[in-house]
Write a structure and sequence with these properties.
The structure is a homodimer. By secondary structure, the first copy, chain A, is mostly helical. Chain A has a domain at about 45-145: Orthogonal Bundle (Arc Repressor Mutant, subunit A), CATH 1.10.10.10. Chain A contains seven helices and three strands; from the N terminus they run H-H-H-E-H-H-E-E-H-H. Chain A has helices spanning about 10-20, 20-40, 45-55, 65-70, 75-85, 110-130, 135-145; strands spanning about 60, 90-95, 100-105. A three-stranded antiparallel sheet of chain A has the order 1-3-2. In chain A, a hairpin with a 7-residue loop joins strand 2 (about 90-95) and strand 3. In chain A, helix 2 (about 20-40) crosses helix 6 (about 110-130) and helix 4 packs across helix 5 (about 75-85). The first copy, chain A, is globular. The interface between A and B is large, with 63 and 63 residues. The first copy, chain A, binds a DNA duplex through helix 2 and helix 5.
DNA sequence: GCATATTACATTGATATCAATATAATTTCG
DNA sequence: CGAAATTATATTGATATCAATGTAATATGC
């Protein structure tokens, strides 16, 4: 009878209960679903909302700092921008000061859609806030990771 | 001059600093990269590791409880299983007690690969543990989300 | 100034994620 | 028992994620 698992079941229990990566991935999926659902009326995902919010600045931004703010691979950002660009929500233009670089900004339509999304975010976040104990503590703990 | 943003920049700053969804997504990406890097020698992603660990049980499991444990859509689980199945790491078999259902388990090769991955998880997690203040508190806060 | 290193971004391919939808099997209830 | 509701899973299509790789432009060091 050599069909015993090389990894004891107790280890499985331990990892299930202690793996921070697993816990964060689960929370990420749950929160993504929550905000995706809420933002559906404006046809934005939580990712698209965060990205567009990151582009809502007084002047256009290059891609690098945006990718860093979102802790997102630059290639992921390229892909995400294409979708929003096709929908006429963001502008990707050449940077005259550095021709390797692109400058990102919202179109007027993008600004208007973002404005429509903000109250949804506020409401959804308020519900979440009431449900959780100490949101600011959690936020700070998460900041230590990324 | 009507090209002022409908969403004031101060709101952008506020969302950036307070949105729990954004913070969790960022942490999720960072941690995923950390564990994906570490697990590369055994050719597993953090997701695949968590999934295989969830299948490391005394007896085969149906898909539903696994999807729930991982807080993952059932269709995502179906897709993830296909990859591991093709690599000969997991078995998906019919459930004689309920013919709608599938029973999931690890192959011997899967068990062996998982056994090779566990020390990597332990080491990576230990490094993380030393870097963070209060891991158990963070875990508990995350549990309240998913 | 020029060769080399670095930086900023794009493309491709593989896996991940979920909504919408479909199918088949089981359960429930009248 | 049989129709309707529910449950468990699969498929498709769109977006998300990153590694590997490539390209072009800028910066660096001699």
């Amino acid at each position: 009878m050599s069909n015993e698992s090389p990894v004891p079941f107790s280890t499985t229990i331990y990892v299930r209960d202690h793996c921070l990566c697993l816990h964060v991935q689960r929370a990420a999926r749950s929160l993504a679903r929550l905000f995706d659902d809420a933002l559906r009326p404006v046809a934005l995902t939580n990712n698209q909302f965060s990205l567009m919010m990151a582009l809502n600045r007084p002047s256009p931004v290059p891609m690098k700092p945006v990718a860093e703010l979102l802790a997102m691979d630059q290639t992921t950002l390229t892909a995400a921008l294409k979708v929003l660009q096709k929908r006429g929500l963001v502008i990707v233009e050449a940077n005259p000061e550095d021709r390797r670089s692109r400058l990102l900004s919202l179109t007027v339509a993008g600004q208007e859609l973002l404005a429509a999304a903000v109250p949804i975010w506020t409401e959804t976040h308020a519900v979440l806030d009431r449900k959780l104990n100490d949101l600011s503590r959690l936020r700070q703990d998460l900041l230590a990771i990324s």
